[in-house]
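Whiteboard transcription, Tuesday session. T.W. wrote the structure tokens on the left side:
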């Protein structure tokens, strides 16, 4: 199974390059694979970008189970992007492009993306500021979060709307997880 092969590669590279603090296989399954896959039903459209992908989570597992979608996995850390590119080649994921860049400086030549995914990336106000250039009126920003923060929500700029706040249940993970689905407010 390609998801387990991904963990094999992560374990191998992690010994030399310290890609993730999680080193035990069981924790990799819960904290990386299952956590990543929990948002699959929330993805919107064909073109997905995973901002701050790190070692490829949630983008790589999602690309494995949804080969019909195109995934751009972006991170500012070169060694992590090299791992993502290697893992995509090793797993035969022709639907993945690894990009070494900062979110606020990168643009897709094809225009706005369908879904922008972030996982433990930044507080909401900073997050939407950094990804706004990747968004159009139909783009959904999917922010994976731990505990809810009313203060963080209160700082969201007025031109952004929270469409949904979805509880995520991760088998074997006894931590609060939820995902916010955001969009630019199209009203004048």
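and on the right, the sequence the group agreed on:
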């Amino acid at each position: 199974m390609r998801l387990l092969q991904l963990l094999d590669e992560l374990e191998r590279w992690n010994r030399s390059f310290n890609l993730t603090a999680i080193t035990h296989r069981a924790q990799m399954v819960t904290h990386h694979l299952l956590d990543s896959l929990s948002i699959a039903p929330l993805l919107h459209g064909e073109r997905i970008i995973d901002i701050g992908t790190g070692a490829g989570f949630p983008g790589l597992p999602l690309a494995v189970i949804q080969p019909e979608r195109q995934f751009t996995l972006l991170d500012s850390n070169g060694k992590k992007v090299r791992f993502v590119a290697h893992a995509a080649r090793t797993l035969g994921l022709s639907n993945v492009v690894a990009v070494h860049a900062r979110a606020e400086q990168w643009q897709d030549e094809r225009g706005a993306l369908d879904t922008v995914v972030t996982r433990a990336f930044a507080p909401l106000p900073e997050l939407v500021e950094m990804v706004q250039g990747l968004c159009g009126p139909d783009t959904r920003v999917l922010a994976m979060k731990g505990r809810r923060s009313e203060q963080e929500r209160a700082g969201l700029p007025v031109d952004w709307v929270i469409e949904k706040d979805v509880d995520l249940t991760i088998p074997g993970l006894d931590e609060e997880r939820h995902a916010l689905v955001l969009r630019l407010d199209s009203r004048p």
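Someone added at the bottom: The longest strand covers residues 160-167.
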